[in-house]
Amino acid sequence: MKTLLLLRHAKSSWTDPSRSDHDRELNRRGEKAAPVMGRYLHEQGLVPDLIWCSTAERAVQTLTLLGRDFASASDVIYNEDLYMATEAVLLESLGHTHDEARCVMMIGHNPGLADFAARLFGEGDGEALLEMNRKYPTCGLCQYEFDVEHWADVRFETGRLIRFVKVKDLQGIGAPPT
Description:
Elements: E1 2-8, H1 28-43, E2 50-54, H2 57-66, H3 68-73, E3 75-79, H4 87-95, E4 103-108, H5 112-120, E5 121-124, H6 126-134, E6 141-146, E7 159-165, H7 167-170
Parallel strand pairs: 1-4, 2-3, 2-4, 5-7
Antiparallel strand pairs: 1-6, 6-7
Helix pairs in contact: 1-2, 4-5
């Protein structure tokens, strides 16, 4: 059994028009949201063995702000190909994951991340799928499980969607507001 966590980067800033899209940083809302999601993941026991992270500044900052458990307990692969990647590129990257990793997180961007999450669905939480397809907001997270031994065997339409979580939802269960 393999677990995949798909996390969209936290909210980024558009205040500096001279900055390239790749180099945009998080805004204050994003800086507050990422630690909220990190605490939730930690409380749920979802600290991954390996993290694939886009090299975009906002994705790297999101990872950093999730908390020290993620930086110290996980192997991290920073991959430029994940910047604005399509679902095919995300699936290909996932297929290169070493099989010792039971839980993997990918931190990326829309629309590719949302498209990837939707295409993985084979069964599971249908309500979460509807909500995810409606809007995959910044710092949104979905969790899939796959009944495979090798990451290279993951295919579209074979995942079991366990949950879809938005930081906004976490505010209602005691997490600090963002």
